[in-house]
């Protein structure tokens, strides 16, 4: 049954991808990209990768769709016609695809029980993770503890991405005027948004502080919380959203999250351990692991929330400036 569901979802992905290739209406392309991400999230759920499904649904089908719509407001809805020859791009794509397929020939069969990862890596985490980390969610154990350096690098990359986007588009400003924007004239949308936004933020907090026992974590929680504020901005307007959470506060939060993460590693150094060695944060190594993981996940959540919202503010303000002009 699981294989049948995978084949159906894979077929739907192929249909969506082919449709995207031939469409000229960029608005329809963005909508199909959101559907593609949602189908991908369903595949991850069927593969029991719920943590990845959370991220794909929130980022791919949610925030990315909103940002691409903001880009369309700056560029245009219709794809411009070009007179370039299509033969050369087709050859490049075919050659690149063939090289990638050739590179996979030496890889072990997907999901085979004799694969090196299943013989050495997986048993090590499955057998030792409960003893060393003490968390039932091994995904959190791997990402937050065993791969703590990598996750710190990913957090820094997210922070650097915000710096790059804000440098190109210009940082959003908190407005003192009360410009009418958003969908304030739609009573039904306002009522539904007021019901959904608190529940979304509550769910983000649950994902944040329950990620060590169930699917979730700082990245997913940050994206979900940012989506709640983005929904508020879309319905009630950007000026009101920037009064709720100002861009200046977001810049501080983006840096603060990275500092919390890195500061946890520095604290472990001062306590006699290695960088990001949570065992020394408490008298009991398991308790120290819990404290360290909670702290670094909090840092990740704060940074991701602030970065996602800052990028949305920047795109939304650019769109409003274009409309005014």
Model description:
The protein is built from twelve helices and no strands. It is mainly α. The chain folds into two domains: 107 residues, Four Helix Bundle (Hemerythrin (Met), subunit A), CATH 1.20.120; 189 residues, no CATH class. α2 packs antiparallel against α3, α3 runs parallel beside α9 and α3 packs parallel to α12. The mean pLDDT is 85. This is Multisubunit sodium/proton antiporter, MrpB subunit (TC 2.A.63.1).
Keywords:
325 residues, mainly alpha, Four Helix Bundle (Hemerythrin (Met), subunit A), 2 domains, 12 helices, 76% helix
Would you kindly provide a brief summary of this structure?
Belongs to the CPA3 antiporters (TC 2.A.63) subunit B family. With 325 residues, the chain is an all-alpha fold.
């Amino acid at each position: 049954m699981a294989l049948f569901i995978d084949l159906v979802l894979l077929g739907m992905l192929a249909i969506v991808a082919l449709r995207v290739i031939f469409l000229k209406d960029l608005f329809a392309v963005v909508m199909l990209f959101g559907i593609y991400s949602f189908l991908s999230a369903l595949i991850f759920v069927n593969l029991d990768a719920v943590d990845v499904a959370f991220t794909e649904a929130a980022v791919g089908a949610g925030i990315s769709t909103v940002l691409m719509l903001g880009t369309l407001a700056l560029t245009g809805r219709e794809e411009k016609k070009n007179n370039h020859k299509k033969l050369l791009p087709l050859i490049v794509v075919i050659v690149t695809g063939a090289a990638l397929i050739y590179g996979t020939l030496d890889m072990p069969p997907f999901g085979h029980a004799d694969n090196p990862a299943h013989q050495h890596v997986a048993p090590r985490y499955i057998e030792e993770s409960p003893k060393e980390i003490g968390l039932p969610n091994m995904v959190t154990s791997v990402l937050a503890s065993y791969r703590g350096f990598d996750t710190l690098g990913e957090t820094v990359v997210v922070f650097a991405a915000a710096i790059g986007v804000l440098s190109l588009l210009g940082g959003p400003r908190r407005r003192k005027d009360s410009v009418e924007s958003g969908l304030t004239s739609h009573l039904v949308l306002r009522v539904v948004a007021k019901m959904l936004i608190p529940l979304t933020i509550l769910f983000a907090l649950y994902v944040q502080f329950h990620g060590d026992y169930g699917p979730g974590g700082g990245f997913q929680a940050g994206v979900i919380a940012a989506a709640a504020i983005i929904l508020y901005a879309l319905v009630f307007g950007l000026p009101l959203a920037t009064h709720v959470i100002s861009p200046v506060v977001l810049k501080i939060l983006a840096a603060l999250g990275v500092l919390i993460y890195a500061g946890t590693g520095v604290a472990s150094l001062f306590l006699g351990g290695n960088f990001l060695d949570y065992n020394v944060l408490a008298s009991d190594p398991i308790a120290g692991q819990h404290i360290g993981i909670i702290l670094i996940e909090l840092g990740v959540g704060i940074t991701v929330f602030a970065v996602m919202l800052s990028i949305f503010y920047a795109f939304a303000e650019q769109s409003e400036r274009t409309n005014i002009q």
